[in-house]
C-alpha cells in the first residue's frame, strides 16, 4: 500500500486510520484550566511534525490563551469566554454565533476534542469535519458516541499521564508519536522575555543562580502550610540561594505570600500578582530550580525545562506530575508516605478544602528533595 504524503507507516495498522495527506485544516479543542491546556500542547506539535501541510487551529477558554498563543505549530487560536454564560440573553447568543461563524469558515477536515465537554460534541456535528475524535466516556449516551467518527479508549487498569492521554487521540487515528516528540511547548515571546530581563537586572539576579518558589494554587486543597514554606526559604537563604516568589494576581494567593513574607527574617524577592503567564514562563526559564505544588506554574516549569520539586497531595503524580526531561537533574515529587488514602482525588479530606496529607508533609522531606536537586551552591 502506497503511503500518502504526511502519513506514518503505523497508520496502516488501523482500518479506520485518518489519511493525513487528505487533511487541510484541523481543530484541537481543550476547554479546561491553564495546566490542562498546556499539557495538550504536544498534540499540536506532533500533528504538525507528521503533517506539516495541515493548518492547525485550537479552541480554548480565553483566560488560558497564553498557554498556547505563539505555539509554532498553531495557525489560529479561537477563544471561548467563561463569562459568556453570565452575560446571558442576546450578548451570549451573539458571542456564540460569531465564534461559530469563525470556526465554520475554516472548513475543518479533522476535529480533535480532548475533553468530555458537550461543546466539542456539538461542534463536531455542526462543523461537518470528515473525521472527529474524542474520549470514550464511561456510560456515554448514544448521542455522544454518534457525534464522533473515532473514540479514544482509556486504560482499563491504572492511570496514564495526561500528556499521553491527550496524545492517544493521535494514536487512535494512526499517528504514533516518538518519545522525543512529546515535549510540552510554551513560547513566552520577546515582550515577556524583555520584561523579565528588566526585573532580573533590577534585582541583581543571575541566570540559574536563583530558586523560584510558587507556594500557592487556585485550589486551596493543593496547598502546603506557610510554616513549611518559610522554613524552606530560610534554608535556601542560608545556603546562599536568592529566592524569587510568585503567585497569581488573586487576593487569596497574594495574601498568602504576604503572610509568608512576614514570617521571614530576610524577605525574598516577591513578584506575586505582578507577572503575566508569559512572564512567569520567562522567569521560570531563568531559574535554577522551581519549587511549588501541583499547579499550572509547575507545568510551566516543566515546559521551560527547569527542574522542579513538586509537592503532591490528593492528586496523583502518575497522571499530573511534572512532564518531560528538565535542563539539569530531574523533576522530583514529594508526597506523603503515611496516608494510604492518597491520591484520593478529593478537594480536601472529606471535601473540606484542606488536605491532611499535605498539611502534615514534613519539611525535612521537602528540603531533602530541594537539596538533592541543587547540590552545593
Task: Outline the structure in words.
- The protein is α/β, with parallel strands linked by helices and 377 residues long.
- It has 2 domains: 9-181, Rossmann fold; 190-374, Rossmann fold.
- Helix content is 37%, strand content 14%.
- The protein is built from 15 helices and 12 strands.
- The strands form 2 sheets. Strands 3-2-1-4-5-6 form a 6-stranded parallel sheet, sandwiched between helices.
- The longest helix has 18 residues, at 89-106.
- It is globular, with a radius of gyration of 22 Å.
How would you briefly describe this protein structure?
With 377 residues, this protein is of the alpha/beta class. The chain has 15 helices and twelve strands.
What are the SSEs and their pairings?
Layout: E1 25-29, H1 34-39, H2 41-50, E2 55-61, E3 76-80, H3 84-87, H4 89-106, E4 110-113, H5 118-127, E5 131-135, H6 142-146, E6 150-152, H7 162-172, H8 190-202, E7 211-214, H9 226-238, E8 243-245, H10 251-262, E9 269-270, H11 277-286, E10 289-293, H12 296-303, E11 308-312, H13 317-320, E12 332-335, H14 356-359, H15 363-374
Helix pairs in contact: 8-11, 9-10, 11-12
Amino acid at each position: 500500500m502506497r503511503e500518502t504524503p504526511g502519513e506514518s507507516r503505523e497508520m496502516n495498522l488501523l482500518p479506520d486510520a485518518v489519511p493525513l495527506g487528505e487533511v487541510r485544516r484541523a481543530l484541537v479543542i481543550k476547554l479546561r484550566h491553564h495546566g490542562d491546556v498546556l499539557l495538550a500542547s504536544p498534540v499540536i506539535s506532533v500533528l504538525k511534525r507528521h503533517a506539516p501541510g495541515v493548518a492547525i487551529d485550537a479552541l480554548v477558554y480565553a483566560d488560558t490563551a497564553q498557554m498556547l498563543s505563539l505555539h509554532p505549530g498553531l495557525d489560529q487560536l479561537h477563544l471561548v469566554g467563561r463569562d459568556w454564560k453570565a452575560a446571558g440573553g442576546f450578548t451570549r447568543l451573539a458571542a456564540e454565533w460569531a465564534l461559530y461563524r469563525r470556526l465554520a469558515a475554516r472548513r475543518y477536515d479533522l476535529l480533535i476534542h480532548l475533553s468530555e465537554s458537550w461543546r466539542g460534541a456539538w461542534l463536531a456535528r455542526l462543523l461537518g469535519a470528515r473525521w472527529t475524535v474524542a474520549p470514550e466516556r464511561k456510560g456515554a449516551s448514544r448521542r455522544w458516541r454518534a457525534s464522533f467518527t473515532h473514540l479514544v479508549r482509556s486504560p482499563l487498569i491504572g492511570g496514564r499521564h495526561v500528556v499521553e492521554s491527550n496524545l492517544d487521540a493521535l494514536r487512535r487515528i494512526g499517528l504514533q508519536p516518538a518519545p522525543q516528540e512529546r515535549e510540552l511547548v510554551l513560547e513566552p515571546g520577546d515582550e515577556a522575555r524583555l520584561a523579565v530581563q528588566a526585573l532580573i537586572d533590577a534585582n541583581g539576579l543571575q541566570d540559574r543562580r536563583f530558586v523560584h518558589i510558587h507556594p500557592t494554587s487556585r485550589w486551596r486543597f493543593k496547598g502546603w502550610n506557610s510554616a513549611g514554606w518559610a522554613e524552606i526559604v530560610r534554608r535556601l537563604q542560608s545556603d546562599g540561594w536568592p529566592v524569587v516568589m510568585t503567585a497569581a494576581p488573586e487576593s487569596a494567593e497574594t495574601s498568602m505570600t504576604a503572610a509568608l513574607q512576614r514570617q521571614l527574617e530576610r524577605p525574598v524577592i516577591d513578584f506575586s500578582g505582578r507577572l503575566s503567564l508569559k512572564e512567569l514562563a520567562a522567569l521560570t526559564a531563568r531559574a535554577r530550580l522551581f519549587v511549588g505544588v501541583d499547579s499550572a506554574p509547575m507545568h510551566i516549569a516543566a515546559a521551560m525545562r527547569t527542574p522542579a520539586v513538586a509537592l503532591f497531595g490528593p492528586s496523583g503524580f502518575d497522571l499530573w506530575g511534572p512532564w518531560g526531561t528538565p535542563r539539569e537533574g530531574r523533576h522530583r515529587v514529594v508526597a506523603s508516605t503515611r496516608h494510604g488514602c492518597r491520591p484520593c482525588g478529593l478537594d480536601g479530606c472529606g471535601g473540606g478544602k484542606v488536605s491532611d496529607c499535605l498539611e502534615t508533609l514534613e519539611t525535612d522531606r521537602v528540603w531533602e528533595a530541594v537539596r538533592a536537586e541543587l547540590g552545593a551552591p
